[in-house]
Design a protein that fits this description.
alpha/beta; Ubiquitin-like (UB roll); Elongation Factor Tu (Ef-tu), domain 3; Rossmann fold; six-stranded mixed beta sheet
Length: about 350
């Protein structure tokens, strides 16, 4: 038996390691050439302390309270030199990846197809090379994270969130069709099936946490992509008999009617996940859509009064408007995770305390 452990570093880089049965996270990381912080390796100093966000594990009782207090254990803090996973886990490592002598993973693959979903959105589908990752697990990432794709014929990269679920040999992305954009121009004018692509990642702190309470998802434009990845993972878990009974509601906003894409996928998720629902919103005043305006105009205040988590992904103006709305309405979710994205810029991921 082995488990996958995601190590999330302060600079947004994620690396995934495999822990063997009975193996500590620290030993597994060193075996896979990731030098996590450590000094004593005996549970005495606390140098290897991190935060376990998801998963089950055993810490034993061989560490000193000076290294890890009972209060810290209750908060999910761990010593990686003592932590033995009993399931897949996600750990926050409180240093940059470079200090652990690691860097983003590199992936290669070839274009399977490019689909013009609308004048505003492109879907890019990539078949990953089998030599880059475990053939059974496929590409490891946390649903919601992004990867940097090098634009063929240039040294430039662009960052895109996965719309596919983790662990497959085929990765998909929703990409905004930017006029005169470097990647947009390549995809709409030159890209062909079989073209080779190089990617680095995964990256980002915007990803699905353990589902403990109702979730409100807010997507703007191609910011829908990470939610498709999250929903695919949750639907797969439900298909396998796991309990995914918390209500999940998605509000998906676009500027024009024909910018609404992947609604067939959302309909399929509503069929597979009994507690998932979604509504679409269109900004254009000329639209005949039943819900016009912005996503903030169509939130259910009664539902928002509950204990719930918020995930928000969209362009900066939308994200800023939603943050302002929550602040002015004094709406305080249990957790609020958001990511801003803009063409040719690295996405900005944050958590609102």
């Amino acid at each position: 038996m082995s488990y996958t452990v995601a190590l999330n570093f302060e600079d947004g880089i994620s690396r995934f390691i495999t822990c063997k049965s009975g193996e500590t996270v620290l030993d597994a990381a060193y075996r896979q050439k990731i030098n996590l912080p450590m000094d004593c390796s005996d549970g005495v100093c606390g140098t290897c302390k991190g935060q376990c966000e998801q998963g089950e594990f055993d810490l034993g009782d061989d560490y000193l309270e000076e290294a890890l207090s009972e209060e810290e254990v209750a908060e999910g803090k761990v010593l990686t030199c003592q932590m033995v996973p009993n399931s897949d886990c996600v750990i926050q490592v409180p240093v940059d990846s470079t200090l652990c002598k690691t860097c983003p993973g590199e992936q290669t693959g070839q274009i399977a197809r490019v689909v013009q979903l609308s004048d505003d959105s492109i879907e890019l589908i990539i078949d990953l090379d089998e030599g880059n990752q475990d053939e059974e697990a496929g590409l490891a990432f946390l649903p919601g994270q992004y990867i940097n794709i090098q634009v063929p014929g240039s040294d430039e990269t662009r960052s895109y969130s996965f719309s596919s679920r983790p662990g497959t040999q085929r990765a998909s992305f929703l990409i905004r069709n930017v006029p005169d954009g470097l990647m947009s121009g390549y995809l709409t004018g030159a890209a062909q099936p079989g073209d080779r692509l190089t990617m680095t990642g995964p990256v980002g702190s915007f990803y699905l946490r353990e589902v403990k309470r109702p979730i409100l998802m807010l997507a703007g434009g191609t910011g829908l992509a990470p939610f498709l990845s999250m929903l695919e993972l949750l639907a797969d878990r439900h298909d396998q008999g796991e309990d995914c009974s918390q209500p999940i509601h998605l509000l998906y906003g676009v500027n024009k009617d024909d910018h609404l894409v992947k609604c067939d996928a959302l309909d399929a998720f509503a069929e597979r996940l009994p507690d998932f629902s979604y509504n679409t919103v269109v900004v254009d005043d000329a639209s005949a859509h039943p819900r016009k305006g912005y996503v903030t105009h169509h939130m259910d205040h009664d539902a928002l009064g509950q204990d719930f988590d918020v995930y928000l992904c969209g362009p900066p103006p939308m994200v800023d408007a939603v943050l302002t709305y929550f602040r002015e309405e004094n709406i305080q979710p249990a957790n609020f995770y958001y990511e801003k994205f803009a063409p040719s810029q690295t996405p900005v991921s944050e958590e609102v305390a």
